[in-house]
Design brief:
single chain, mainly alpha, elongated
């Protein structure tokens, strides 16, 4: 009986990134449901479509320029996931464009 060759370190890293992304997506949805926070239709669709693409293709973006090598989510997808997770925890969304100016 012939044994399978061991998986390459790159393949193992890619699979680990895929599992981590899927777990993060599941955690975000679960924490929102647990906290009673209703996600917008867009956020629910985002979580569903990204997790489906990660399951199917191993990553959620088509262009390799959009994400780091060995990562399953692009930079913007990771940012959106963090925003959804923060919303589920009840945290205030962070300002994107610097400090708020004083009204004077």
């Amino acid at each position: 009986m012939q044994r399978k060759p061991p998986p390459s370190p790159f393949e193992a890293q890619r699979k680990a990134a895929q599992r981590a992304a899927l777990n993060a997506l599941r955690r975000a949805r679960r924490s929102a449901e647990k906290a009673g926070v209703s996600l917008s239709e867009w956020e629910g669709e985002f979580l569903d479509s990204v997790s489906e693409r990660v399951k199917t293709h191993g990553r959620a973006f088509g262009d390799p320029e959009l994400g780091a090598p060995g990562h399953a989510l692009s930079a913007m997808q990771g940012r959106k996931l963090k925003e959804i997770t923060a919303k589920a925890k009840g945290e205030e969304p962070k300002r994107r464009w610097g400090k708020k100016r004083d009204q004077g």
